[in-house]
Amino acid sequence: MDKSTSGRGEGAPGTQVVFRVASVLRAVAQHPDGATTLAVSHAAGLTRPTAHRLLASLAREGFTDHDSARGLWFLGPELYLLGAQAADRYDVSEAARSSVRALARETGESAFFSVRRGDQTVCLLREEGSFPIRSFVLYEGKRFPLGVASAGLAILSHLDEAEVDAYLDRAHLEREWGASHSRAELRDRIALTREAGYAVNPALILEGSWGMGAAVFDATGRPAWALSLTGVESRFRPDRRPELGRLLLDHAHTLTKALRTPHPRG
């Protein structure tokens, strides 16, 4: 039995199919340079034959594209068309682009804009800074559970206590991300984030790669997005972190105001 039939995949057969298709598309999206069937099956929690069957069916409808010469799968043109139609309602990337570019320019680090999607964050924008040594932990389309990368920690820390407790009850992040993501460790980092206003990820994903993030809020005051910076450890010294944090908070505040202001369309 495929692993996807457990957890969120439980329920009526139709619900299971929708869950599997969504998992396959997300798995393909994680590989901008193309995903093998095996990589998709692992990421989606499916057997290889099931993953291939779904990928082929999606290709017939234009939702995936197959490079048969290299055996790689890509997101298909139909997703682009649907995404273009959804952009008017959901796309905030253009509003965030100037903040991301400014952060990269002012700090020299790689800057990012991420959106919350359920229990995850998805990176929407990346801008390289001038510092020649970079971290490639985060890139467009990359997903992390809330509380893992600095963007997700910033968002999680600004949820109310009941939401945080419910998330930690179901997430069990230490199973995949190690003891540094135990409930107690996360609680400590949430407290530090709330005190400082910004989140710090001290190389918990990749050795030597640090990150900092600040939440961006929607019109209801809920943390819906985040701005973040990543770079090598030497660039995130204790004496520099307050300045990086101030820049993140300034740009997050400016972006929050911009996203709350309706912009008439021409």
UniProtKB/TrEMBL annotation:
It holds the Pfam family IclR_C. Keywords: DNA-binding, Transcription, Transcription regulation. The keyword DNA-binding applies. Gene3D superfamilies: 3.30.450.40, Winged helix-like DNA-binding domain superfamily/Winged helix DNA-binding domain. Residues 78-261 form the IclR-ED domain. Residues 15-77 form the HTH iclR-type domain. PANTHER family: HELIX-TURN-HELIX TRANSCRIPTIONAL REGULATOR, ICLR FAMILY (PTHR30136), HTH-TYPE TRANSCRIPTIONAL REGULATOR RV1719 (PTHR30136:SF35). This is IclR family transcriptional regulator. It comes from Herbiconiux moechotypicola.
